[in-house]
Amino acid sequence: MKHIIVGTAGHIDHGKTTLIKALTGRETDTLREEKERGISINLGFTYFDLPSGKRVGIVDVPGHEKFIKNMLAGASGIDIVLLTIAADEGVMPQTREHLNILSLLGVEKGIVVITKKDMVDEEWLNVVIEDTQKYLQGTFLKDAQIIPVSSTTKEGINELIKAIDSLSEDVTEKNTSDFFRLPVDRVFTVSGFGTVVTGTLMGGIISNGDKVEIYTSGIEARVRNIQVHDTTVESAFAGQRVAINLSGIKSANIKRGDTLGEIGAMEPSTMIDCRLNYLKDAQKPFKNRERVKIYHGTKEVLGRVILLDKDVLNPSDTALVQISLEDSIAAKRGDRYVIRTYSPMYTIGGGIIINPNPPKRKRFDKKVIEELSIEEKGAPEEVIEQIILKNSSSFLSINAIANISGIKSIDIEKNIKMLQDKKKVIGFKTSEGTLYCHRDYLDNQYKRIKEQLEVFHKKNPLKVGTSKEEIKSKIFNNNIKQKIFDDYLHILECDKLIKTNNKYVSLYDFNVSLTKIQEDIKNKFIDIYNASGMEPPKTNDVIESIKKDIPNNRIDDVKMVFELLIDTGELIKINDEFILSKKAYENSINLLNDYLNQNKEITLAEYRDLLSTSRKYAVSLLEYFDQVKITKRVGDKRVKY
Description:
The chain is an alpha+beta fold. The protein is built from 19 helices and 34 strands. Helix 7 (366-377) packs across helix 8 and helix 8 (380-390) packs across helix 10. The two termini are 58 Å apart.
């Protein structure tokens, strides 16, 4: 079902609130100060039913220039605007500013309502209508219907309602498949219920019992109750005005400008990449690093605008910019924003967020400008590829790509499949789902691995390779899941680029090559340890005995060959003073397995007798087996792992 929000806009005292009362029969000025002063200060919300049966929400925004930030909070999410122009005054300053804001926020549909028709004669009314038509040329309301009304006599109100009903047919249905997101425009406490927030649901569906996150504080809460148009509902949908009763959070911990959303769905940021459209009626050129007020959703935040592709921005110009914010926001690619001057305050521009979580950019960097241009205008496949390429070291999920790109998850999956078919993107299956990176990133990482291994092999010709952990630490800074790392090494091995064993990595074409003396040393070690069986001599004694038969200039080879035999598994290092030959080690495992197959469990004493060795060696072996998950200790006994 299509959900529609109608909003008012226009200069102060041009009859917005009175018009809404004429349309709905309800008063939206609820504050005592509003009623006393006769102007809207805060946002007002109500609803009414159209002849077609559609129920629409309606937002009344303040017209006074002092309350523009409240107007901006209410304008987010408007589908149809009623631009009110009083017949006795015509177009005024806030008419212009509100129209600029609506255009910057991407509002596309509206009706121009000439209010206070009863206060002027027909001739003057026609002059105002004609002036309004001229003024609206070049705006999104250039072809909008203009309807004069009197909220007092109700003349023209029925015609306006019919026009709203007709225009509502052209409103695009909101995206309920996106994640839930609600910019908060009001917070209050209801006795007996607790914290209540209101806003326009920008995407997705929210239901009773759902857990939500408050962005950007990170506080979590649960939905206790939902109301849409004063009616309690089980779920609310994108495009609806919603009041949500939250449990697990105090009203003091949430404020206008915060956003309710799915837990982990967005990444708060103090930097955004944007397209900035500088208004034609801006009063002066815009310089790099100017401090401005930024409005996004219902939030107002100070920031500085860095011009990325221009030295200065003249009125009606456009530029790629990076905005450095003084407080974090939670945004999506494609979100709209507005900027106003810091002092005095007036609206000067706005546009679309291209990247809500970018790194710090350099000005006039051709690569950066090219990337942003692709993200801004490229086809979904290009945008998704660019996002994956730039974030490959993070190994993004579908949801993470959706958060950055603003593209539906289902479309991301389709485009990633095409990128995988083209061998541009690789997916790694993990317990958290499939995570993606770009092939170029992995190719570059392999170049670094290759360089590291070449240096290692040159320095250590008798080492089978460097440790996997060394590669993980130096190449990936340990910022990679173990399963992804293992799968990546497997890909390189299948491509015959590297070789691996349990602990080590080497280049595929590398092999340890021993000299005649080194071969002799190797054989001496193996002979000694084979002969010693389960009662091996001390390691240093073995090394020293072999050194006696080796020329002085090759003494260092003894230690290197010994370490090689440990690395290759021809000698098994149980601990520093307990080294076994491969033959003795395998025999100790076979005896253990045979015994456990018959008896299910074994004691230390039983294993000692089985090996005909000392208690010290039996303890060391069993503890080693526990470590490598051959056995498991249960009380005083061992069982198969």
